[in-house]
């Protein structure tokens, strides 16, 4: 648990606090990348973690370090192998269950297996591209193969046994990004799961056009999937990175407050939203202009 500051003496104090938190995270990230680079014959990295854990920032760090070492890096987003949203909705209607956006059955494993097989065999691979705004594939991209190429497979699914099975017999590094600790704010606790939900509320609104009610409606399914397909396998990862930062709530405040205020009373998260609004009202706001462009928090705030 990290004790988060709530009050600052001025803008310089806020900036210094942000940079102090970032320095600690950057040091942990550097150590994780060093361990991956030290693995012999490692040309493939499986980068996973539950939703809103900092996978993109970790991928960028790996890209930078591998590139400096002379490699050409290709990032393969496993999200691009999603089935079209309409198909997933149709499946749910046919079974009378919830719409599943997270489990292994949402991934077109046949297309994924073909792409992985081509990459591991040293052949040019054709990968799909998925558009989250339209909820369907928007085309394909060709990924070449070279002697010094490195491939980073990134997504919450990269730790699923159904995914890792395709890499069996080949050397790879497994990296897991995770908000491992929660935040304590003047005696009130925001646990690590709720912290990721707050990140996701802001990210989904900013980048995926999703209203808070939509994100909250999906959260139970997201958590069920994490408990079944992600968290049991954390121990199989070669490297675990904690992305929790002390300044998070102050930085989320200007984005999160209007989203929580918009929740109707009948929403199941309404009471918790009111508690969070009360907590945020007692915290000084931190402008995102103080957050480095390379920070994990740019994934949520832009």
Account of the protein in words:
With 302 residues, the chain is of the alpha/beta class. It has a single domain (2-301), classed as 3-Layer(aba) Sandwich (Rossmann fold), CATH 3.40.50.300. It is built from ten helices and ten strands. It has helices spanning 11-37, 55-68, 85-95, 109-120, 161-164, 192-207, 212-230, 248-261, 270-281, 298-301, and strands at 2-3, 44-48, 72-77, 125-131, 136-143, 149-154, 173-178, 183-185, 188-190, 239-242. The strands form three sheets. It has a five-stranded parallel sheet, with helices on one face. A three-stranded mixed sheet has the order 1-8-9. A hairpin with a 2-residue loop joins strand 8 and strand 9 (188-190). The two termini are 26 Å apart.
Summarize this structure as a short list of keywords or feature phrases.
3-stranded mixed beta sheet; 5-stranded parallel beta sheet; alpha/beta; 10 helices; Rossmann fold; 17% strand; 302 residues
List the helices and strands and how they pair.
Elements: E1 2-3, H1 11-37, E2 44-48, H2 55-68, E3 72-77, H3 85-95, H4 109-120, E4 125-131, E5 136-143, E6 149-154, H5 161-164, E7 173-178, E8 183-185, E9 188-190, H6 192-207, H7 212-230, E10 239-242, H8 248-261, H9 270-281, H10 298-301
Parallel strand pairs: 1-8, 2-6, 2-7, 3-6, 7-10
Antiparallel strand pairs: 4-5, 8-9
């Amino acid at each position: 648990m990290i004790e988060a500051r709530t009050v600052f003496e001025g803008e310089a104090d806020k900036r210094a606090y942000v940079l102090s938190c970032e320095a600690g995270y950057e040091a942990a990230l550097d150590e994780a990348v060093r361990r991956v680079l030290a693995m012999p014959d490692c040309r493939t990295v499986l980068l996973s973690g539950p939703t809103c854990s900092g996978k993109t920032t970790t991928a960028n760090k790996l890209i930078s370090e591998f590139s400096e070492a002379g490699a050409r890096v290709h990032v393969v987003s496993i999200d691009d192998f999603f089935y079209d949203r309409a198909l997933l909705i149709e499946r749910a209607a046919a079974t009378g269950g919830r719409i599943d956006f997270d489990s292994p059955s949402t991934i077109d494993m046949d297309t994924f297996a073909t792409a992985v097989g081509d990459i591991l065999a040293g052949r040019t691979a054709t990968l799909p591209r998925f558009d989250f705004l339209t909820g369907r594939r928007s085309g394909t991209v060709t990924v070449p193969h070279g002697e010094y190429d490195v491939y980073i497979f990134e997504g919450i699914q990269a730790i699923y046994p159904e995914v890792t099975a395709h890499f069996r017999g080949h050397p790879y590094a497994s990296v897991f990004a995770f908000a491992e600790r929660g935040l304590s704010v003047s005696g009130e606790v925001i646990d690590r799961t709720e912290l990721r939900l707050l990140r996701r509320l802001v990210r989904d609104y900013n980048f995926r056009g999703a209203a808070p009610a939509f994100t909250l409606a999906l959260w139970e399914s997201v958590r069920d999937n994490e408990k079944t397909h992600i968290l049991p396998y954390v121990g199989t990862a070669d490297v675990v990175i904690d992305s929790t930062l002390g300044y998070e709530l102050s930085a989320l405040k200007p984005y999160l407050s209007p989203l929580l205020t918009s929740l109707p009373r009948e929403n199941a998260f309404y009471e918790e939203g009111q508690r969070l609004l009360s907590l945020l009202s007692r915290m000084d706001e931190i402008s995102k202009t103080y957050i480095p462009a390379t920070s994990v928090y740019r994934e949520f705030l832009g």
